[in-house]
């Protein structure tokens, strides 16, 4: 593993505010939404940042628990898909005539609510998202009424798992927009009409792990 201080270009004795500021500056430049070629670099930066922050903020005895089996990933039972998203997904990302996508988003604000501990927000945990999707039936190409795979529907529904890194220092209640363009690029054959998903983090009112 590379020296995390070197990755972020920081002095070893940098204080928390300096580290945060540096990370924000670098994120602005290298976040994959702004610069798709820098995805790997951004991941490396987040890992370096988590390492430094955990060294500075967390007692060594707790550090191990935090970094252990979960690999800094939020468990799926803490990820809640809101009604608006469920509706939109069921419709293959089409919304009914009476509602525009905008209406849905304004009304419900966030598509996904994630319950997180404060320290997880600070560190920027990974959130594995389940994205229901629809694709043209690979067996009949959507052309057979008697297809055994799609039963004549012409398409099949499936769920994709797509992990995103929540930017470190997301504030509780803040809405984070997730750009779906990289997902569309990776799976060009699936139908996703939306350009963004909105995630909101809710603080767990329980002792930190
Ligand atoms: Zn078929």
UniProtKB/TrEMBL annotation:
<dbReference type="GO" id="GO:0051787">
    <property type="term" value="F:misfolded protein binding"/>
</dbReference>
<dbReference type="InterPro" id="IPR051948">
    <property type="entry name" value="Hsp70_co-chaperone_J-domain"/>
</dbReference>
<dbReference type="InterPro" id="IPR036869">
    <property type="entry name" value="J_dom_sf"/>
</dbReference>
<dbReference type="InterPro" id="IPR036410">
    <property type="entry name" value="HSP_DnaJ_Cys-rich_dom_sf"/>
</dbReference>
<dbReference type="GO" id="GO:0051087">
    <property type="term" value="F:protein-folding chaperone binding"/>
</dbReference>
<feature type="domain" description="J">
    <location>
        <begin position="3"/>
        <end position="57"/>
    </location>
</feature>
<protein>
    <submittedName>
        <fullName>DnaJ domain-containing protein</fullName>
    </submittedName>
</protein>
<keyword id="KW-0143">Chaperone</keyword>
<dbReference type="Pfam" id="PF00226">
    <property type="entry name" value="DnaJ"/>
</dbReference>
<dbReference type="InterPro" id="IPR001623">
    <property type="entry name" value="DnaJ_domain"/>
</dbReference>
<dbReference type="GO" id="GO:0036503">
    <property type="term" value="P:ERAD pathway"/>
</dbReference>
């Amino acid at each position: 593993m590379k020296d995390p201080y070197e990755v972020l270009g920081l002095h070893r004795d940098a204080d928390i505010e300096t580290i945060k500021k540096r990370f924000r500056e670098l994120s602005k430049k290298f976040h994959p939404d702004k610069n798709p070629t820098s995805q790997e670099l951004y991941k490396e930066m987040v890992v370096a940042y988590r390492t430094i922050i955990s060294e500075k903020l967390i007692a060594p005895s707790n550090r191990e628990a935090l970094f252990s089996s979960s690999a800094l990933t939020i468990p799926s039972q803490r990820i809640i898909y809101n009604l608006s998203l469920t509706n939109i997904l069921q419709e293959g990302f089409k919304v009914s005539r009476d509602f525009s996508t905008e209406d849905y988003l304004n009304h419900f604000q966030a598509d996904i609510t994630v319950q997180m501990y404060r320290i997880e927000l600070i560190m920027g945990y990974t959130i594995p998202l389940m994205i229901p999707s629809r694709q043209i039936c690979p067996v009949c190409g959507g052309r057979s009424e008697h297809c055994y795979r799609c039963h004549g529907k012409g398409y099949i529904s499936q769920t994709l798992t797509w992990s995103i890194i929540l930017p470190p220092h997301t504030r509780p209640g803040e809405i984070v927009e997730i750009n779906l363009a990289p997902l569309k690029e990776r799976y060009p054959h699936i139908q996703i009409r939306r350009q963004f998903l909105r995630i909101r983090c809710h603080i767990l009112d329980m002792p930190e792990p």
